[in-house]
Amino acid sequence: MSETAVDISATYQLEVWGGNEIVARVRTWASSTAAVLGADPQAIADFALAISEACTNVVRYAYADQSQGRLILTARRIGERIIFRMRDFGSKFDPADVQPPKMDGEPTVGGYGIYLMRQVMDKVRYVTDHPVGTELILVRRRSH
Amino acid sequence: MEIATLRKGAVAVVILSGEVDTTTVAGLHAAFDDLVSRGERNYVIDLSNVTFMDSSGLAALAKLYKRIRIGHGDVRLCCPRSEMRRIIELTRFDRVFDIFEERDAAVASFSE
User: Fold this and answer.
1) Does domain A12-141 fall into CATH 3.30.565.10?
2) Cβ B54–A116 below 8 Å, yes or no?
3) Residue A119: closest CA among chain B residues belongs to which residue?
4) Which of A89, A79, A76, A81 is nearest to A123 (CA)?
5) A23 contact residues in B (CB cutoff 8 A)
6) What is the distance between the alpha carbons of residues B14 and B46, in angstroms, rounded to a whole number?
7) Predicted confidence (pLDDT) per residue in A39-57, tens digit
8) pTM value?
9) Shortest distance, CA A21 to any CA of chain B (angstroms)
10) How far apart are CA A116 and CA B87, in angstroms?
C-alpha cells in the first residue's frame, strides 16, 4: 500500500460563501473529492454534474435575494457508496414544486437540473425539516 | 468558456470550448442573440472542446432551437465528448437535434 494513500474513511468538508461564482469551485471540489474517495471516471463526472446542478439551484433559488450565500458540503464513503451532502441556509426548497421537463416534443428551456441529478445518482433526497435552509443528499456507487 | 464563430456558406458554425454552466452561460446566450439578430438561420454547434455542460447550457441550446425553428432554420450538433453525449441522451435532446461525428458533415447536411 502506498505511503501516500488517501484516507477513504475520512469525511471531507468544504464551506463556501458566494454567488454564481462558487458553482465551478464547488464542482471542482466535488470532482477531486469523489476521485479521492475512489470513484471511477463515470462516477466522478456524475457527481460533478449533480453537484453543479444542485449548487446552481441553491444560488438561483435559495439565495435568490442574496449575493453571498453560505454552503457547506461534506463527502464520505460507506462501503461502495459515496455520499455527498449539501447544506444551505437560504429559502427552503421543495422538490415537489418542480415539474419534470416534457421530453415528448420540442425541448423545454429549463427544468432539466433535478431530472439530470436523479438520472445520474442512485439516490437524491432533500431534507426540508431543518429550522433554516435545505439539505440535499446525493448517493451513488463509486463504480457501476 | 470560449466561443468562436465562423461562417460556412449559409451555415453559422459556433465552436464552444471549456465549461458551460450557470456562471458562463450568459456569454453563450449573448452570442446566440447576436447571431440570430444578424439573421443566421442554420447553425452547427461544435461541442468537441466542451469539457463540461450542465442544464444551463442545455437550456441555451433549447432556446436557440425554439427561436430558429420559427424561421424554419435548424440547429445541429457535432462532436460531443462521451460525457456530453450522455447528457444529450438522458435529456432526449438526441431526438430533437441531429448529431454528427464530424463538423464538415454537419455543415454539409444543410445542403442535402
Assistant:
1) yes
2) yes
3) B90
4) A81
5) 21-23
6) 6
7) 999 999 999 999 999 999 9
8) 0.92
9) 6
10) 8
